[in-house]
Amino acid sequence: MTPNHSATIANNRPRRGLLGRTVTAARAPQTAADATAQKLAPAATAKPAARTPRRALPRAVWWVASLLLAIGAWSLLSVNPTTADTFPSLVKVITAIGDMYNKGVLLQDIGSSLLSVLGGFVLGFALALPMAILMAWYRPIENLIGPWIQFIRSIPPLAYVPLVVMSAGIGTKAQIIVIMLATFLVMTVTIYQGVINVDPLLIKAARVLGARDRDLFVHVLVPAVIPYIITAVRLGATTALTTLIAAESTGAVAGLGMRIQSLSQNFDTAPMMLYIIIVGIIGVALDQGIRALERRLTTWQEN
Amino acid sequence: MAGELSKLSITHLAKTFPRGDGELKVLADINLEIGANEFVTVIGPSGCGKSTLLNIIAGLDQPTAGAVQCDGRPVTGTGTDRGVVFQQYALFPWLTVRQNIGFGLKMQGKDAAAIRPVVDHYLDVVGLTAFADSYPKDLSGGMRQRVAIARAYAADPAVLLMDEPFGALDAQTRAQLQDSLRAFWAAEKKTCFFITHDVDEAIFLGQRIVIMGANPGTIKEIVPVALPEPRTQAVRLSPEFLAIKQHVWAQVYQEAAVQA
Fold first, then answer.
1. Rounded Cα distance, B74 and B64, in Å
2. Which of A141, A248, B24, B167 stands 20 to 30 A from B227 (CA)?
3. Of residues A43, A47, A208, nearest to B138 (C-beta)
4. Assembly ipTM
5. Pick the CATH number of B6-81+159-259 from 3.40.50.300, 2.120.10.30, 3.30.1330.30, 3.40.30.10
């Protein structure tokens, strides 16, 4: 694991808004508190209170505008002769919900895919956490296993899916194994970074304040690594979803990725688009859920 | 030098680090007695081993030879009888100001009910009551260092070791914190071992100044500071202060010139 590479991963830690903009007004202005403190301690130079955001349109207005823009663009694509085949009218896509539901496959596909994603992800995380800590603490383990984690991580999962299917057979089991492997690799690397980045000065500070080894783990290591764990979880969730499509490409009986494959063979674009949109919605929902968790757990972070 | 009252006793202390095929002598034959509740400042050029000396007293580093005793007991590791204030504050960013100040007491196994009044007291002393529930990221450098000092005090060590605690602060904040620290010390006596590279700071705070030389780190001279107590900013302009400054500066400058 080269430091260069790891830096990239550490820098991935997003603490930004939906599309990368810094979320302002997240920090409460402390004007009243500032004033009191100045009185108590003349030396205290408090940070200036958070700048009041410029008069801006409410979030919801922008969301609606953005949605309308997308619908407009789609409609144009669906009437333009060269793209009309790929972009069926939105009405067709929406009615596809009913069709697929009536065929009894919609919920089955969503359920099957979520099972694979969650199963693989949870197993991947359960393995990544101890592996990352072991690698960060014991040099021989890092030296023996680290290079292989990097190596396998750089192979697109689609390349080794057939191998997994050959050994684990066709079905949910193989899909869970593929997702577990992919998420394990990406999460191990990220959490490992977090463990080796714990500031040694904080360890020293805790020790001189009387912390024992167990205290260091609970009160210094764990809280220091939490931001990295959350980033790992986010990267893992994204990886799980992208890998899912690869995992289902070989002989799944149900699933969003499998259905997209089979629909594409019939050029059945309306339900295919519907499925693609569902994959997107699941991805955004996962990301937003993790973000909410992050806001709760890492309010203390500088940004 | 308060022989029978000696709080910290450093005898024939030496530290070498392996370097290449040889070794680097960082400290050689350091002998120092520090009395209970005494305020000692240490000054010397960079590389004279003063931080290494502090780390050894704190128990964060081991000497190659010699020994440190605190209250007559040999120092073998960190202990709650010796607190440390670091230059880079070293606050726990995930804990609020209140939780940071209470950290030492929590590690000592005190329960929340016992910790709260102590923390309230030190919040008041450092003037940060209004920021009790803020996180370190929302504080200025000076405020962070106040929290770090309060945190060290709250754990109630007999000896307070400070490694250039004001080194990263601007001149005004630094002067104000020197005032507060001195007032703090006058109110609740501790044995203070304070490292600095600022001659004025060494004189203003110290009852004695330990001047160190480098290559290897040794004690060159110990200068008593007979300035009136309590010390106020006015003392900085007194002839006595300036006389000491002239002397200390000459020593430190000479040492720096030898280095360069």
1. 14
2. B167
3. A47
4. 0.88
5. 3.40.50.300
